[in-house]
Amino acid sequence: MQIRQLKTLILGIPLLLFGGCNAASGYKNYFVEKLAFLPEKVDAYPPISEEYITEYWLTTSDGLRLHSFYFEKFESDRLVLFFHGNAGNAYSRLDHANKLYDMGFNVLVVDYRGYGKSQGEPSEHGLYLDAQAAYEAALKDKGFSSDKIYLYGRSIGSTAAVELSSRYQVAATVLVAPLSSGRAMAQQMGLGWLGWLVAGIFDNVAKAKKISSPVLILHGGEDTIVPLSQGQSLFDAISHQSKEIVIAHRSGHDDIQHSDEIDFWQTIKDFYSKHSSH
């Protein structure tokens, strides 16, 4: 566990012990917001030289303005909604988004609430509202049909992708190092004794049977942040007949895209292409 996370946990204990009847709920929110999210806020991003990348603003159903980057591929009618991991912000994922752009996709990379230039503070429910805002913008503002919308969710971003694919029509879903549930993550962080408190949060497995699109999971066998066992549990819970899991046995959480065992980006391209409507 990181020092920052341990400090956060300790500071929250008085809330649990002395917070009255709403203490458990309050500590649950505190735990999620302070431990699950590590946002980097900025007032401005460095200039971007690529003319096809523009800054794009979304408005959520609860009235927050979210910043995002939009990669426009004029000749393409397909879009990838890109949901990044829990640390940093969208700017640090532009190179990964470029890989998807080079495959022939438009790409929308969302800064969650509290990240980058976006308003608000991060939360689990807020993350789902942010994902919904991105999906609705893709349909209503950008004009993509639902069968031309693809999802890419990495680490905690997998929960945003699973939330969408379990509720709405999309073409295909790619999950990289996905977590199975908040309870499993608490155990992984050495906080198994909090399992009763965090039950139900970020519960990808509970939503797995409702996923309506083909799913590809990519996971590193040496991932010590979100272990392969979580990706495997999620894979086993998905009921959609078209599902795949690709394991890079010698890769960890952050380096799977550099694996010499699998061709990470080509695997994703082939999967998207296989499930592309024409």
Strand-helix topology:
Layout: H1 3-18, H2 23-36, E1 38-39, E2 53-59, E3 65-71, E4 79-83, E5 87-88, H3 94-102, E6 106-110, H4 124-140, E7 149-154, H5 157-165, E8 172-176, H6 182-188, H7 195-198, H8 204-207, E9 215-220, H9 228-237, E10 243-248, H10 264-274
Parallel strand pairs: 1-5, 4-6, 4-7, 7-8, 8-9, 9-10
Antiparallel strand pairs: 2-3, 3-6
Helix pairs in contact: 1-2, 4-5
Quick overview:
This protein folds into two domains: 1-36, no CATH class; 42-274, Alpha/Beta hydrolase fold, catalytic domain (Rossmann fold, 3-Layer(aba) Sandwich). It is 36% helix and 18% strand.
Quote the average pLDDT. 89
Radius of gyration: 18 Å
- Structural class by helix and strand composition: alpha/beta
User: Could you give the order of strands across the largest sheet?
Assistant: 2-3-6-4-7-8-9-10
Number of helices: 10
- How many domains is the backbone divided into? 2
The biggest beta sheet is recorded as:
8 strands, mixed
